[in-house]
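To the wet lab folks,

You asked to see what we're planning to order before we commit. Fair enough. Below is the target structure as tokens, and below that is the sequence we designed to fit it. If anything looks off to you, flag it before the synthesis order goes out.
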């Protein structure tokens, strides 16, 4: 059992803002004067994932200056400080960590296992480290690792990703404590997977593990924090989830504490954090949402109001001749319940004039799908015009189920900056509705919205199931095919023709998703940076 006292600084960096990130680390050092060591997340000085930012030479001039500031600052304190940074030498770039104490560098360590799958692309940027990192601190032996170094386990990773397991070497080194600097993004069940993995590491290495994870949203990725300490008797102390946090913990004496939020509460926290940070880090504070009176735009509006407050959200109903009076009333009721700004802009006349001009100057009639989609595209134009006028971002209400099969109008309901529900199956949308109604003293979301049949409402008497399977069937097929890579023949539903039809639609919609706003990732496989399929391809072999 180690006697060290450790500070975990679970920070939310802004990628590329080294000045701000450095200041926050120095502030954490100030508050850690009674600790032996302060640990920060992976690439904590730059922020993760930096992508092509690390190919800019100027970055290294700024980074050198900020690392030196931190190094000099440690002369005034007793605490050792562990910083994640990008090391560069004549051979290339490295995802690295450095430890400073009393103005001196104790060790530099380069990450060994580089994830290059799903949302990760580290072999594009980094060279591989050569060996594990070990240093002595106050009479104790400390190992240092970075994120993926801990994720060799085939059972956790689903398939063998790496040839070498760094933690096997630690088993023979009589280590007291192993640090893991991480930028591990959230997805459903990820916290449990991490805890199970690191409990095994603690037992196998006979050491205490300190896992320090990044918090915050960066583009579509949400980093959930959930940093923790675990020792050989599987006692765990966990920091807050979906927030920055700072804790000083004596490793020989701490209470067992684990975050056990319900899955839907975690999903909501992830979406809220991702949405908030997307706006904050791009310099926006106001949101606009087209409110159809349906479940998706309702939930998107509720979440936006939760994140930004009622004074920073505008809902807009954009009815055409097709739109029912009930839909307008439902949208208005939700806006009233949320006390947000709300406008009704009737597009019927704009649609008719557009049709007339088109048909007067073209040999083609505006009918069928073209007539349906022109409504959605006019709505998109109006929302983007309001966005320009109010210096606000449009939030896209589309969900994963519909995006998967292209049940959306490009340049219509897909306009916007980000899709908070873009990785939520339809079932998650309804679960979020129940979640918000349950936690509210009154029902924010009217039962009529929850119980009515979903519809795009672009033609008379339209319902979504006119053009797709029931959502329960669709979501099941998508989960098995998209997230778990099952063969169509292994997917167990009654109608095999429906399976093939859905898979065909998934891949024929690649071009739509490539032009759609970022989805905030909550599942094992979203339709963002981790989904890499060609647009111009033949997918018949999959059937």
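Sequence we intend to order:
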């Amino acid at each position: 059992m180690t006697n060290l006292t450790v500070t975990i600084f679970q920070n939310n960096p802004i990628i590329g803002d080294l000045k701000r990130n450095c200041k926050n680390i120095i502030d954490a050092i100030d508050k850690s004067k009674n600790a032996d060591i302060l640990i920060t997340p992976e690439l904590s000085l730059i922020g993760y994932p930096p992508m092509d930012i690390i190919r800019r030479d100027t970055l290294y001039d700024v980074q050198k200056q900020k690392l030196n500031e931190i190094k000099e600052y440690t002369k005034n304190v007793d605490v050792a400080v562990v910083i994640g940074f990008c090391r560069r030498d004549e051979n290339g770039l490295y995802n690295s960590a450095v430890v400073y104490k009393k103005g001196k560098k104790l060790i530099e360590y380069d990450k060994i296992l580089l994830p290059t799958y799903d949302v990760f692309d580290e072999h594009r940027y980094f060279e591989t480290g050569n060996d594990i990192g070990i240093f002595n601190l106050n009479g104790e032996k400390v190992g240092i690792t970075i994120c993926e170094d801990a994720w060799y386990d085939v059972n956790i990773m689903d398939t063998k990703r790496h040839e070498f397991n760094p933690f096997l070497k630690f088993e023979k080194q009589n280590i007291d404590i192993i640090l893991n600097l991480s930028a591990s993004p959230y997805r459903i069940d990820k916290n449990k997977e991490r805890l199970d993995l690191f409990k095994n590491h603690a037992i196998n290495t006979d050491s205490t593990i300190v896992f320090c994870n990044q918090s915050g949203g960066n583009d579509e990725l949400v980093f959930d924090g959930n940093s923790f300490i675990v020792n050989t008797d599987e006692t765990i102390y966990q920091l807050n989830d979906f927030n920055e946090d700072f804790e000083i913990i004596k490793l020989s004496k701490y209470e067992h504490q684990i975050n056990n939020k319900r899955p839907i509460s975690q999903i909501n926290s992830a979406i809220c954090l991702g949405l908030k940070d997307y706006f904050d880090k791009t310099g926006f504070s106001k949101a606009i949402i087209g409110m159809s009176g349906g479940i998706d735009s309702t939930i998107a509006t509720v979440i936006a109001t939760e994140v930004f407050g009622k004074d920073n959200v505008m809902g807009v109903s954009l009815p055409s001749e097709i739109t029912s009076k009930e839909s307008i009333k439902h949208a208005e009721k939700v806006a009233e319940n949320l006390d947000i700004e709300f406008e009704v802009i009737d597009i019927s006349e704009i649609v008719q004039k557009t049709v007339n001009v088109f048909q007067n100057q073209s040999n083609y009639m505006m009918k069928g799908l073209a007539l349906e989609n022109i409504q959605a595209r006019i709505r998109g134009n109006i929302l983007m015009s309001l966005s320009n006028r109010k210096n606000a971002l449009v939030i896209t209400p589309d969900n994963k189920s519909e995006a998967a099969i292209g049940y959306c109008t490009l340049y219509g309901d897909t306009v916007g900056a980000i899709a908070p529900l873009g990785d939520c199956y339809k079932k998650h949308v309804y679960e979020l509705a129940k979640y918000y109604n349950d936690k509210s003293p009154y029902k924010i979301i009217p039962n009529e919205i929850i119980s009515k049949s979903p519809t795009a409402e672009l033609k008379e008497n339209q319902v979504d199931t006119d053009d797709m399977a029931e959502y329960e069937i669709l979501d099941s097929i998508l989960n098995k095919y998209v997230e778990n890579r099952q063969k169509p023949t292994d997917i167990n539903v009654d109608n095999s023709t429906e399976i093939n039809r859905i898979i065909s639609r998934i891949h024929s919609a690649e071009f739509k998703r490539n032009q759609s706003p970022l989805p905030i990732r909550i599942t094992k496989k979203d339709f963002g940076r981790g989904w890499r399929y060609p647009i111009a391809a033949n997918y018949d072999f999959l059937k």
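Structural context that might help your review: The first strand starts at residue 5 and ends at 10. DSSP finds 16 helices and 20 strands in the chain.

Thanks,
Computational group
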